[in-house]
Specification:
The protein has about 70 residues and is an alpha+beta fold. It has one domain (about 5-70). It is about 30% helix and about 35% strand. It contains two helices and five strands; from the N terminus they run ββαββαβ. The protein has helices at about 20-35, 55-60, and strands at about 5, 15, 35-40, 50, 65-70. It has a five-stranded antiparallel β-sheet.
Length: about 70
């Protein structure tokens, strides 16, 4: 997946350097909230961030950074 998105890292639900742990956190949030969730990463070697896709896209902020979508639930 090579889609790029802009988010404010402070709006993330969770973050982790381990993709599997980030994925588990994303699945838990996705199942509880029944909302689309994105796992994104700024660049290789950086932590994975979990975002509620709808809420994050509504909150465009001046401090937004570019992230690469790694997985979408």
């Amino acid at each position: 997946m090579s889609e790029n998105v802009f988010f404010n890292p402070g709006d993330s639900i969770s973050s982790n350097y381990d993709f599997n742990k980030a994925y588990v956190s994303a699945q838990i949030y996705h199942n509880k909230a029944a909302k689309p969730v994105l796992i994104v990463q700024e660049k290789d070697g950086k932590p994975y961030f979990i975002f509620d896709e709808e809420a994050a896209l509504e909150q465009e902020a001046a401090e937004a950074k570019p992230f690469k979508v790694v997985k979408k639930l």
